[in-house]
Amino acid sequence: MAEQNGLKNRGYSRADVEERRTAAEGFTGATLDTVSRYSIDPEGASKNIENMIGTTQIPLGYAGPVRIDGENARGEFLVPLATTEGALVASISRGMSVINSGGGARAAVYSDGMTRAPVLRVEGIAHGRRVMEWIETHRDEIDAAVAGTTSHGRLTGMDVYPNGRSLYLRCVYSTGDAMGMNMATIATEAICRLIERETGAVMISVSGNMCSDKKPAAINMINGRGKTVVAEALIPRDVVEGRLHTTAEAVTETNTRKNLIGSSMAGTLGANAHAANMVAALYIATGQDPAQVVGGSMAITTCEDLGGDLYICVRMPAVEVGTVGGGTRLPCQSEALSMIGCLGAGNARKLSEIVAVTVLAGELSTLAAQAAGHLGKAHAALGR
């Protein structure tokens, strides 16, 4: 079994996978019959996983269609969602149907930049100041170092944060249609090696956690990471009352007392009902990095009663998605991306707007159910 562990085992034929799975069954005593049934080519997954023994299947459904009038996503979309949580897809579909009754959702991407934040060791304040001055006056050399690592990425910003003998750089990159984390890491390493040679500072880690990757962080709430997206909808009074069985006033009060005040009292980063639910289901379906659900969970939901009509909006400061590379190249995930016209280059911003509208629909449905006192009833009716 020891030979089955570690990065040295790179076998990816079906025979390799079967041999490894048999070894796992012998070691664990588990029967992995269902795990062994899959349609993907193991060689095609070689860049996504090591020690492959099969696949884990998650039910895939769709919500919608939903009408979106975004800056990048325009039209009607059936949104693929992979989840094991009963009632989730039904709830999102209800929200989308109600949004359509109000004319559809609008969405926009306000910023787009992947971050990596290394930490350098300096000798003290004076040395740190010299390093900062070098960085400020040698941007051309820094840009050249980045260009030497990628033809798709570009350094768009760099903030410097000194702290004693530690110096943190928060590098921001345009990464095209890739989520861009690997691209940003490789480019940042090249920047740090240049700084080391020219200033004597020492890179301790290419990630000093001010990125901040896969962790909830106020810096990402404020400055954004990946795409910062806003989605909104206006639901007419008759639709709120007739379809959602509540009022704009009641939904707004629920959102204020639950999402805004309650979240503030709990100290959460983000103020929403369950944004992570929609983000996780859509990310898993479309081959995104599931750990980036952390960024998606930091959404802020706002509601307003506009003379009986309901205005609802979500702001998502960290939608970290791509439409090329990573898990998007796997066959099931590629097909899911094709459902929403987001497979391949030129579609990352479009996908981020679809993410935000899907979160908007889920927030609307759940807040309305809670305002009407129907949340538990809905779950009970679906046998959950």
In short:
By secondary structure, the protein is α+β, with helices and mostly antiparallel strands. Helix content is 41%, strand content 22%. The chain folds into 3 domains: 10-57, no CATH class; 60-112 and 227-381, 3-hydroxy-3-methylglutaryl-coenzyme A Reductase, Chain A, domain 2; 118-205, Hydroxymethylglutaryl-CoA reductase, class I/II, NAD/NADP-binding domain (Alpha-Beta Plaits, 2-Layer Sandwich), CATH 3.30.70.
List keywords for this structure.
384 residues; alpha+beta; 3-hydroxy-3-methylglutaryl-coenzyme A Reductase, Chain A, domain 2; Alpha-Beta Plaits; 3 domains; ten-stranded mixed sheet; globular; disordered N terminus
Task: Describe the protein's architecture and organization.
Helices cover 41% and strands 22% of the residues. It has 384 residues and is an alpha+beta fold. It has helices spanning 14-28, 88-101, 125-137, 139-147, 181-199, 218-223, 237-243, 248-266, 275-286, 293-296, 331-339, 348-372, 375-381, and strands spanning 60-70, 74-82, 105-116, 119-121, 154-163, 166-174, 202-205, 226-235, 300-306, 309-319. The protein folds into three domains: 10-57, no CATH class; 60-112 and 227-381, Alpha-Beta Complex (3-hydroxy-3-methylglutaryl-coenzyme A Reductase, Chain A, domain 2); 118-205, Alpha-Beta Plaits, CATH 3.30.70. Strands 1, 2, 3, 4, 5, 6, 7, 8, 9 and 10 form a ten-stranded mixed β-sheet that branches. It contains 13 helices and ten strands.
